Amino acid sequence: MKRLDFFYKAIFMVLLQFSALSYFPKDYEHAREQFLKGAERISKSYPKIIYTNKFSVIGDEGEELFSDFIFLDCRKFAQKSQPLLLLTSGVHGPESFVGSAAQIWFLKNESEKRCKQGVSQVIIHALNPYGFKYMRRFNKNNIDLNRNFPTTSGIYQQVNSAYKNLEDILNPKNEISSLPLRSVCVVTKLAKSLLKGQSPEDIRQASVGGQYDFPEGIYYGGAGPEPVVVWLESILPNILNSHTSVLHYDFHTGLGKKGVLHMMVGAGLTSFGKRMIKKVLKPLSNENFELTTPDEPGFYKIQGDIIDYISLLKKDGKILSLTAEYGTVGLGIFSQLKTLTRLINENQGHHFGYSSDRVKRTVKERLKDVFHPPKSTWLRKVREKNTFILTQLLDGFLSELN
Ligand SMILES: [Zn+2]
């Protein structure tokens, strides 16, 4: 009998694992195929109110890679207010899996129902398709898109002098070979900076806050808006401003407590956004998510980010734009150094080459692991929380608006 119990338990665990894994796309191609399938289904139901668009970049093998855009205009079903839900994914390549899965799930399970409730939807899939396919946080031009949006004037002329002091540690300029040795070197050098009196917070803010001086360096924000940003600006303002209110989730992974969903607000939070946080987010924040601000320990401030930029596009300020950030490695200094080191390794390999295909594969896999851990408990938690914010949290917003 006991043996039979064990057998059923094992089968159950395998099924659980399989269902957690099957929620997520395997890679960029699979994600796009699933996304387009969902979009096609919706367009068959609503051929007259769906608008699609796409933006492309060229991959390393000459292939076209796409960011896909769907607008489902459901205003004719609206009762009182005409809300818009905006979902964006894949600003950072290795973080694309979670946002893509959320969008595919929403298209399949919620989109039609929400449209009948009068909730219009804009769903933008894989904003950095090159990074998704080739496992790069940054895009093909080495730009960190979440530092590239023109949120303030003169953003591309800014100088991050603390980054300058760390530049040779953050951006080694030779071919990458022996991996453990490379990682030890980077960590040792960063530790030396700590001993020189720089606090871990200073080093983190300097490294990851964004820089506009070193085009081959990590966290480079560019010299002007990237073509994908210009593309968004040509489509989004009209749609945002023709709805009475907007709720925006931009999906990320990496930062924060392991397995915890941090719903984060940006510096451009409007008074409408503040009211929504007080009335809807705070009462609903529980084991499903934590409400987090960038100045909390372990987090950091950025500029040029998508949520602040999208907030600026809605002229009457009736928008709440949030980063849905799933923690992967935790807030400890060693966990954060691990993530930073892997980003440094990948960037070094991208610009200065790898000694072998094996080293390249390992670097890419290690980077993916810190942003999309292959652990079934983490994957299950993400799936549950994604579902919560796309159903119950969305209901909370809608009842507050009506
Ligand atoms: Zn991110």
The CATH topology assignment of the largest domain is: Aminopeptidase
Strand content: 5-15%
Tell me the overall shape: globular
Report the helical percentage. Answer: 40-55%
Would you give an account of this structure?
With 402 residues, this protein is an alpha/beta fold. It has two domains: 2-160 and 227-328 and 380-401, Zn peptidases (Aminopeptidase, 3-Layer(aba) Sandwich), CATH 3.40.630; 167-208 and 329-371, no CATH class. It has 15 helices and eight strands. It has helices at residues 2-22, 28-45, 96-109, 111-116, 129-134, 161-170, 179-195, 200-208, 227-241, 271-284, 306-313, 333-352, 357-371, 376-390, 392-401, and strands at 50-58, 64-72, 83-88, 120-125, 245-254, 261-264, 290-292, 319-327. Strands 1-2-4-3-5-8-6-7 form an eight-stranded mixed beta sheet, with helices on both faces. Helix 6 crosses helix 8 (200-208). The mean pLDDT is 91. The structure holds zinc ion. Zinc ion is lined by residues 91-92, 95, 252, 254. Zinc ion binds next to strand 5.
